[in-house]
Structure formats: structure tokens, C-alpha cells
Amino acid sequence: MDVFISVACYFIIVLLAVFLSSYKFRVRIRVDLSRNRRRDLQQSRETKISLAVIILIALLFVLYNVLVTKMNPSTTSDRRNYALNFYGIRASQSAGLTTVIKYLRHFSSNVESLFYVTTFLTMAITLLAYRIDPEATPSTLLFLFSSQYVFFSLECLKQAYANAFSALCLAFALRNEGRKDKVLSIVALILAIYFHHTGFFLIPILIMLRMRKTKKRVLWSFFALVILILFLEPLLLKIASIVAPYASLLATKIYQYIGDSSSEDVQTEGFLTFVKGFPFYVITLIGWLKRKSLVDKITNYDNYLFLSGVLCLAYLATIYNSWIYRFSYFFYLAEGAFFSLLIRNIKNPNNKTIIKYATLGVLSLLTFRFVLLMYMNFGGL
User: What are the residues whose beta carbons fall under 8 Å from the beta carbon of 35, sequence distance 6 or more?
Assistant: First the structure.
């Protein structure tokens, strides 16, 4: 019974969140029609989603966190580890999370406050990234919330902060309106690294986004991704050996997840995780097929296509270790924006319906399966 209450409440909150963002988006469209292009961009940013709505939606997800926490008050899995960190029994490996705990301990002695504050902050930062991303629409949020993105803020706290700051980093990089956006993108990247070591992998991605792209370069980048998959394990092990003297934690984590010395407890799900990437494979394939007709109409089209390819890479790389897919959550907001771009530009209604089922439909089913398994195996979220 609890699982159905949990799913129903989450569904209602997602509908409310998308409704609130849709209302603001309609206001933006009406305003844009009566202004020149330069003022369109400025006005769009101000009315796409207000800071008040960002706070409201973030609080709705906090309420959901409170609900599922009270339904299952026992600290299981990762939450048990964070409880040990919060009460000072064991130090966290995340400098960012340690800082959050340090300041939070001044106001609360209950670990639940850490869970709730994390959901609020990470969702607010993600929604701020949504506000900044020039191509994001309410369909982007529907795509994002159909995935397991929000649930990371309930269970995987370090990763949740890294996901949020990565989304912010990419949003600034995609908007790219002068030096200020470049600096802010780098700051967000540093904060992602501050919370989780996987943030280091954003550095080459950010560099690639700055490069001018042509059809040949995009094609070569996809070819390079295929080669990277084939040689990912020896490459990562080589990187680990090089960075070990300077970033020992990163090297340790690579050895933990890759190679003969990797821990057995992170070798989970295997082939199924590869299959979970199906919605993103579909989006990337359609993006490539539609490139010729859309690349000159949509700003940043090739950058969105590139990020979609990297997201697919994260799922394809699960042939080495299924936990690598967690890196993919860095790109979910940008992928949602790319999804909404493609849907808006597909004229055939039957094709549009099929694509929605193959992406949003599959994504939602996988999220429902995740919630169901959490209640079956652990008694709740």
C-alpha cells in the first residue's frame, strides 16, 4: 500500500511542478510576440520560471521526502552511511557534504534535516539551471522528473549535489553570454567536484562544448566515443595511475569501480543497466537524423547532440561496471532540453507519439520499477 501512496504523491507533485512551469512559459510566449529579439531573450529569462516558483517546487519535493521518510523512518542503505557522517561516527569522503553537515549541525541534531535540506538545495539549483538553459521548456522538466533524478536527492546525497551543480555548469556553458557565464560555469564545475569526485569528468566535456562544431567534427566525436568505449577500462586505469599523486581519492574510486581490483559490491544489475539507456539512444539517433534540417535553426544544436552522445556513452560503459551510469545524471537536464527541441520540430503526429512512448514512457516505467523494488527490498525509499 505504501508504494502506491508514494507513487501517487510523486505523480501529483510532478504534475503540479510542470503546471507551474507551464504557466510561466505561456506568459513568456505572449510577452515575446510584442518585443524585439534582444528583449525577447531578456524577458524570456525573467518569466520562464520565477525564483518564487523555484522555491515552491523545491518545497513540494521536500514534502515528498518528508512523506516517504515518515513512512519508512529506518535509515537503510546509503542513508545509514549519511547518518554516520551526520552524527560524527564516520567522516564523509565528500568535502562538500562535510561542509553542509558542519553548518547544519548548528541548527539541528536530527539527520532527517540533512535529507530535507539536500532535497531543497539540489532541486532549487537544478531548477535554477532550468531557468538559465536557453532551450529548456516545461517538457524538459517532465522529462527530468520522469527519471530517477529527484530520488537521488533522497538517497544519494553526494551525487545529488554533484548532479545539480553539473546541470548548472552545463546551463551556463550552453547559454554562453559572455565572460560572466564562462566564469560561473567553471565555479559550478568546481562545486560539483567539491561534492563528488565524478565531477572531474566534466572538465573535458566543458572544453568540448567550447569548440566550434561542424558535421565532420560531430561525426568524428561520435566515432571517438565508440573508440573510447572499447578502450575505456585501460584508459581509466592509466588516468588513475597518473592522477594518484595529486588526486588520490579520484584514483581510489576509479580502482574501486574499474579493473580486476574493483569491489564486487558495485558490480550490480549488469546488462539491465545497459538497457536502461534505451530512451537516450533513441534521442541521440533522432538528433543525428534530424541534424541536417535543424542545425541551422536551433542554437547549440550540435552541443546538445554531443551531450546526448556522452550520456549514451555513460550507459554503454556499464559493460565494465553498471554504476558508471550514475555519471549520466549530470546530463539529464540538457537531455530533457534536447528532447523538447526534437519533439517541437517533429511534424508527423504518429512519429511524435512513438518517440514519446520510447522515451518518456520507458523512462517512467523504469522509475516506477525502481520505486517498487525499493519498497520490496528495503521497505521504502
Answer: 43
